[in-house]
Amino acid sequence: MEVEDNRDHINYRDWEASDLFSSVHWEDSGVRETIFDPYNNMQHFRRLGEADELLHGQFSFALGETLMRCSDLDPDLTQRLHAALKAFESHESAEGLAHVSLSCRRFIEKLANCLYLPREEKVKGRKVGQAEYRNRLWAYVAENVTSDTTRELLIANVEDLGKRIDKLDKLSNKGLHSDVSSSDVNRLLLSLLVVTHDLISLRPPGGAFSYKPYETTIRVFIEGVLQQQDRPSQDEKEWNCLKWSCA
After folding, report:
1. What is the dihedral of CA 80, 81, 83, 87, to 10 degrees?
2. Collapsed DSSP state (helix, strand, coil) of residue 64
3. Longest dimension (CA), the chain
4. Bridge partners of residue 126, in order along the sequence
C-alpha cells in the first residue's frame, strides 16, 4: 500500500553534506511506535527504566569491586588500568587507540605477575615464564577453580582477551592504525574488565599483605635513616671543633 513519505529529507541531506560520517542511511524502524507496536506503552517504558537502574547498580558494584581489589592486590594495577581508560577517553586518532591496546597488555601482564608468579618448570606442559603471561593466567584458573564448566568458561574468556590484544597489537606494529576502530578497542576494554573481575574474584578478600609494590619506598627510607646515623651529629661536630681549637 502506498503511504506518504514523511521522512526528513532536508536533515538527511544536511548530514550527508556535513562529512562527519563516511555514509548516512535511513534507519529501518519497522512497526515501532505504530498501532502494531504492543510495546509502545507506559508499562514497557517503566520496565525499561527499571532495567536501566538495575544494570547501572549491578555493573557499578562489580566495577567498583574490581577497582578496589586491584588496588589492594597492587596499586600499580590501578595505575595501568587508569592509563588504558584515560587513553581511550582522550584519544583523537587511530594511533591514540593503539596506545589503549598497549596499556591493556601492560595491565594484564601485571595482573598475571600478581596472581601467578613466573616459574622455570612447565605446568601441565605449558611454559609459565615471564613472557607467557597468558599461560600463567590459565594455570591460575586451573589451580583455583574446581568446576570443569566454570574453568572452561574462564579460560575461554582469557583466550578471547588475549586474541583481541594480539590482533590490535599486530595492526599497530604494522602501522595500520587506521584499521584500529573505536568499537574494537571499546570491546577490548569491556572484555578486560570482565576477565579481571572473574580472575580477581577467585581470590578471597584480604589475605597476606604484599610488600612488593612498596619495596622501593621502604628501601629508600631505610637507606636514608642509615645514612643519617652514619653522619656525625651537630653536637659531635661542635665538640670536634672545640678539641681542635684547644689543641
Report:
1. 150
2. helix
3. 120
4. 123
**CA–CA gap between residue 129 and residue 148 (Å, rounded):** 25
178-to-88, 93, 171 alpha-carbon distances in Å: 15, 8, 9
Counting every residue, how long is the chain? 247
* Residue position matching grid coordinates 600478581: 114
What does the alpha-carbon distance between residue 68 and residue 62 come to, in Å, rounded to a whole number?
10
**Closest C-alpha among 119, 148, 146 to residue 135:** 119
Are 150 and 177 in contact by the 8 Å Cβ rule? The answer is no
Residue 163 has phi, psi (to 5 degrees) of: -65, -40
Tell me the domain boundaries of the chain: 32-206, 215-247
Q: Is the pTM of this model over 0.90?
A: no
Spatial separation of the C-alpha atoms in residues 122 and 129, rounded to whole Å: 8
Taking only the tens of pLDDT, the chain with its 247 residues reads: 567 788 889 999 999 999 888 889 998 888 888 889 898 899 999 999 999 999 888 888 988 999 999 998 899 999 999 999 998 898 877 778 878 888 888 999 999 999 999 999 998 888 999 999 889 998 999 888 888 888 888 888 888 888 888 877 776 665 455 667 788 888 889 989 999 999 998 887 766 778 888 888 989 999 888 888 776 655 565 656 555 555 5
Separation in Å, CA 100 to CA 80, 115, 151, 168:
10, 23, 28, 9
**Cβ proximity of 159 and 134 under 8 Å:** yes
